[in-house]
Amino acid sequence: MPYCSRCGVEVDNDVEKCPLCSTPIQVLSPENLKTGKYPDKPAPHPAPPKRNKKEQRRMAAIIITFGLLIPASIAIAADVVINKHITWGTYTISTLIYIWVIILLPLLYYKTPVLTLMAYYLSTLLFLYSIEVFSGGEYWFRQLALPIITVTALLIALNFYIDNRSAIKGINIFAYAVFSVGLECVGIEMAVSLFLENTVRVWWSIMVLSATIPTGGLLLYLHHKTKKPLKTEKFFHI
Fold this sequence. Notes:
The protein is mostly helical.
C-alpha cells in the first residue's frame, strides 16, 4: 500500500494527500507500477527553513512583549475594578516595563555593550524615580538611589574597559571584580550615612575593602607570575 513520505502512515491507493499532514502522496515510478511495490523507505521530507539568529531574537522579543502585556493588562483591569481608578497598578506597570527593558536590551543590542550599559543605567534610574513619585515623593531618589546606582554603573563600566584592554584574560578579571566589590561597599555606606545622618561616614565598608584588596592583589600576583594564564574555572575547580 502507498504511504505518506512525511509521517509514514499507510493510505489507500486512490488517496492523493495524507489525511494527517496533507503531504502529497508520492507517485510510483513506471518500474514500481509494474511490480506494485513501493520504496522500502519513505522519501526524506525537506527540513523546514531555519531562522537566522536575528529573526530568532526578533521573534523572542515579540513573545516577551506580549507575555508581559498580559499581566500588565490584568493588573490594570483588577486595579480599576477594585479601586475604581489606577492606584497600585502603577507599581506593576513600571516594574513590568523595567523588566521588559532589562530583558530586551541584551537580546536586541548584544553587539553594543556600551549602549546597553548606558540604557540599563538610565532605565534603572527612571524606574526608581517612578517608584518615588508613585509612593508620594520621599526624596530618597536623589540622595540615596542616584549616587548608589551611579557608582555601580561606573564600576561596571570600568570592569568592561579593563576586560577589553587586557591582553591576557584569566583570574585577573575576577581580581578586578573583587576590587569593585570593596569600592561598591564604600560608596553604599557613604550614600546611606549621608542620607540618614546628613554626614559622610565609613566604618564597615573599610573592613570589607581591607579584605578585598589583599584578595584581589593575590589573584593578580598569581595571574602575572604563572607562565600560562590561569582561567577562573580551573583555578576554582568549577
